[in-house]
Amino acid sequence: MTPHNNTTLRQIFSLPVIVAALGYFVDIYDLVLFSIVRVPSLKSLGFSGQALIDNGVFLLNMQMAGMLVGGILWGILGDRKGRLTIMFASIFLYSLANLANGLATTLPAYATLRFIAGIGLAGELGAGITLVSEILHKSIRGYGTMLVASVGVSGAILANLVATTFDWRTAFVIGGVLGLLLLVTRIRVAESGMFRAMDDRTGVRRGNFLALFTDWLRFRRYCNSILIGIPIWFVVGVLITFSPEFGVALGISGPVSAGNSVMFCYLGLIAGDLSSGLVSQLLRSRKKAILIFLFLTVAGITLYFLQGGQSPAFFYGVCGFLGFAGGYWAIFVTVAAEQFGTNLRATVATTVPNFVRGMVVPITMLFQLGRNYLSLESSALLVGAICLIAAFLALAGLEETFHKDLDYFEEFL
Predict the structure, then answer these.
(1) Record's InterPro entries (predicted)?
(2) Which residue of 86, 116, 236, 348 is 20 to 30 Å from 298, comparing CA positions?
(3) DSSP of 66-85, one letter per residue?
(4) Whole-number pLDDT of residue 1
């Protein structure tokens, strides 16, 4: 291996990248844990039947609403106070919320804690991707964000293992403890040089969230950055979260476990994030890589609804393929970060993925509304088609950012 390759590997596997990856690992653990323990936790609180779906949607929406609020809060603070500040603060908040979630005994308490945890969970990924994008050279930053996402989504596997080994309350407590332990590793991580340089300049306005809505071209970039990611969370928020119900509706030959569906989906996501990152680097294009994986998502959703009468093992295989197809998450967030200047980058990179996650609220509401007039499968297909069409149109409207120099500022009043 040449000295140049050694230097490149050291940069990719540097402490900030590793810490960002571990932070996202804990983030994903906590984020998907509720999808895994939804049924047993609600049953332990006295709910059954249709109430498991209705209250499950309510709690999921509370968590996602918290992420919408947190995305704006942490994004603004990230551009004003620094990327590391929000990485520390957000993980501390969601760790405490998950510790408390293990003690919840009523639905209102459960919902309140999911909302607070959602606020905390909102800060980790955007801050990590922003930091990694700014400290790595443009020729290799795709590898860095690929590593963050690939390590991060494997947190879902740990969540399933913990949830199947321990009581749901203990699983939440373990997530909180992991988050607090992670704070220790943050001590030696340095702030982004681009942010420090901006901090030394006067007259540069930072973290102005409203500036995203005061200029049409900037607003369009922002909306397109959000829309390209919504098919991922349609899959996770509807097809995977409610996989037991879809298993029955599709005539799967045995019971389907939500925990196994999540685990296989996220195993696919790990492979997908690695593959999409490599494809992006090989094609030297973010847009082409995302386009390929959007077509794979169309294929995966089609297969999901044509598998009637298959075994649970086949169903889990389809969940894995859907996860692989949705593995452009890292590139999607990287594209959002690369679309904007240093003084607005953390705001965008933090709010965009959380707005996508928050889109689970209208997606599930539309899904529930559709069930009043359509079958379970038809309602999901209609919502999925809307999400995919929006993503294809949004991707066409974004600029290619693979070679883009990120050391610049957005100009606004």
Answers:
(1) MFS, MFS_dom, MFS_trans_sf
(2) 348
(3) HHHHHHHHHHHHHHHH-HHH
(4) 43
Cα(172)–Cα(170) distance, integer angstroms: 5
Q: What is the mean pLDDT of the chain?
A: 83
DSSP string covering 154-202, please?
Answer: THHHHHHHHHHHS-HHHHHHHHHHHHHHHHHHGGGPPPPHHHHHHHT-S
The pLDDT of residue 87 is 77
Instruction: For residue 97, give the nearest of 118, 113, 111 by alpha carbon.
Output: 113
Q: What is the 3-state secondary structure (H, E, C) of 100-117?
A: HHCCCCCHHHHHHHHHHH
Query: What are the boundaries of each domain within the chain?
Result: 16-186+209-396
pTM (global) more than 0.90: no
Gap between the Cα atoms of 275 and 328, Å rounded: 9
Q: What is the DSSP letter of 308?
A: T
- Given a cut of 50, the residues of the chain with pLDDT beneath it are 1-3
Q: What is the DSSP letter of 400?
A: P
Backbone angles phi, psi at 350, to 5 degrees: -90, -40
